[in-house]
Write a structure and sequence with these properties.
Organism: Leifsonia shinshuensis
CATH architecture of the largest domain: 3-Layer(aba) Sandwich
GO molecular function: glycosyltransferase activity
Shape: globular
Order of helices and strands: EHEEEEEHEHEHHEHEEHEHEHEHEHEHHH
Domain Glycosyl transferase family: 204-357
InterPro entries: Glyco_trans_1, Glyco_trans_4-like_N, Glycosyltransferase_grp1
Keywords: Glycosyltransferase, Transferase
Length: 398
C-alpha cells in the first residue's frame, strides 16, 4: 500500500507520539509499503526528501513551520495552510490510506481533504488538551473553556475517520467520554522488546530511573521530593533522562532539597545510552498524571525493571500493583517514597519476581502485533483490539 502518515510531531522531536509514529512508519517500510510522512519541518528548511528512521528510508514531506516559544522545542505548521498543504501532498502521493497521528494542524487538513477524495482515513489520538494548557499562556479562568472547545474540535476531525485508535483501553474510554465518539480501538504503541537488555545480576546499588519529557505534567518535582524522603541508608541515586522546559527549575529544586548529589540530570541521550540507563537501573519511577500509555514505562519493563507509577490515566494498564511494581497516590511524595523503598529493600529473589512480571506483562505489547493491526485497518478490514492486560477504572474528564 501507499500510506500517508500525518504528524504534528515527528523525529527529531523527542516525545512518545513522535517515537510511536517513527517506529510504526519504519515497521511498515520494512513490510514493503510505500510510506510517506507529512510533518512540520524541524528547521527553516522545508520540502520533500528521503529521510532514514530506525535504519529504514521513507519519503518526508516537511512543511514550513514556526517555533512556538512558550514550548522548549515545538515547531508547528501554519494552521491556515493545513488544507492547501494537504491538497498538494495528496495530489502528489495519491495514497491508498491516510493515517493521522494528530488532529490539531496537519491531521485536520489531511482528514478534510482525504475524505473529499474518498481516501480512507485512520486517526490515532495521542493528545490530551489538558496537557497543552501550560503552553497556551491562557489565564486560569479560560482554561476549562479551552479544554471543552478543544475536545469538540477534535471530534470534527475524528468523525472523518473510518477508525479511531488510541494506545490503551483506558485511554479509549477517556476519549469516548470526552468527545462522544464510540467504538474507539485500543491499540498499543508497542515496542520491540529485543532492543532492550534485562539484567538479573545481583544489584550493586539502588538506582532509580525516570525517562521522559521534563515538563510540568510529568510531576518530576514529586519524584525529587520522594528522593528526599528516602532513608539515607538506602543510598538511592536518581537518574533523569530527557529534556524540557522544567530542566533548570528541577535542578534548582534538587539543590534546594539538598539532594543534588543524588539526582543526576542526563538530558537528551543517544538510544544506546538510554538502553544502558535502563539496564543499570534498579527500579523505574513514573510520577506523571497524564499518560495515554507511556512508551518509556514499556521500555523499562522490557528491560526487566519493576515500576513505581502514579495511579493515574493509563499507567495502571501497565503497572499491576504488587505484581510488577506498585502504584502510588498521584502527587503524594511520601507514598511514592514508601513504594520505592519497598522495592529497594526487597531481597534479590523477590526483586527478580517483579522483574520477570514486567517482562511477562510487556510481552503483550509487541510492535509486530501493532503493525499488523494497523495494516488491517488500512485495508478496511474489521479488527479485534490486540489482547493486552486490562486496567481497572476509567477517569471521567472534567
Amino acid at each position: 500500500m501507499t500510506i500517508l502518515m500525518g504528524c504534528d510531531t515527528f523525529p527529531p522531536d523527542v516525545n512518545g507520539a513522535a517515537r510511536f509514529a517513527e517506529r510504526l512508519a519504519a515497521g511498515l517500510v520494512e513490510r514493503g509499503h510505500d510510506l510517506h510522512i507529512v510533518a512540520p519541518s524541524a528547521s527553516r528548511r522545508h520540502g520533500t526528501w528521503i529521510e532514514e528512521h530506525e535504519g529504514l528510508k521513507m519519503t518526508a514531506h516537511r512543511l514550513r513551520s514556526w517555533r512556538w516559544y512558550p514550548h522548549d522545542w515545538l515547531r508547528f505548521a501554519l494552521p491556515w495552510m493545513s488544507k492547501a498543504n494537504a491538497r498538494r501532498v495528496l495530489d502528489e502521493v495519491k495514497p491508498d490510506v491516510v493515517h493521522i497521528q494528530s488532529h490539531i494542524v496537519v491531521g485536520r487538513g489531511l482528514a478534510y481533504e482525504a475524505e473529499k477524495r474518498g481516501i480512507r482515513v485512520i486517526a490515532t489520538n495521542h493528545v490530551m488538551p489538558e496537557n497543552m494548557i501550560e503552553f497556551t499562556l491562557l489565564p486560569k479562568f479560560l482554561q476549562k473553556t479551552f479544554i471543552s472547545i478543544a475536545w469538540r474540535d477534535a471530534r470534527k476531525s475524528f468523525d472523518r475517520a473510518e477508525a479511531v485508535t488510541t494506545p490503551t483501553r483506558k485511554a479509549a474510554q477517556f476519549l469516548e467520554r470526552a468527545t462522544g465518539l464510540r467504538g474507539v480501538h485500543a491499540i498499543s504503541c508497542g515496542i520491540d522488546a529485543h532492543n532492550y537488555t534485562p539484567d538479573f545480576t545481583p544489584r550493586t546499588g539502588n538506582r532509580i530511573l525516570f525517562v521522559g519529557r521534563v515538563t510540568g505534567e510529568k510531576q518530576i518535582d514529586v519524584l525529587l521530593n520522594a528522593i528526599k524522603l528516602l532513608p539515607e541508608s538506602l543510598d538511592a541515586r536518581l537518574e533523569i533522562v530527557g529534556g524540557g522546559d522544567q530542566f533548570r527549575n528541577l535542578q534548582t529544586l534538587a539543590e534546594t532539597l539538598g539532594i543534588a548529589n543524588r539526582a543526576k540530570f542526563l538530558g537528551y541521550v543517544t538510544d544506546e545510552e538510554l538502553r544502558q540507563a535502563y539496564t543499570r537501573a534498579t527500579v523505574f519511577a513514573m510520577p506523571s498524571i497524564a499518560e495515554l500509555q507511556s512508551i518509556a514505562t514499556m521500555e523499562a519493563m522490557a528491560s526487566a525493571l519493576p515500576v513505581v507509577a502514579a495511579d493515574a490515566m493509563a499507567l495502571p494498564h501497565l503497572v499491576h500493583d504488587g505484581e510488577n511494581g506498585h502504584l502510588f497516590r498521584p502527587g503524594d511524595a511520601q507514598d511514592l517514597a514508601d513504594k520505592l523503598e519497598s522495592v529497594l529493600t526487597l531481597p534479590q529473589e523477590e526483586l527478580d519476581v517483579l522483574k520477570n512480571a514486567s517482562l511477562r506483562i510487556v510481552a503483550t505489547h509487541d510492535i509486530q502485533t501493532t503493525i499488523s493491526t494497523f495494516e488491517s485497518l488500512y485495508r478496511g478490514e474489521p479488527v479485534a483490539d490486540p489482547e493486552t492486560a486490562a486496567a481497572p477504572g476509567v477517569p471521567t474528564p472534567e
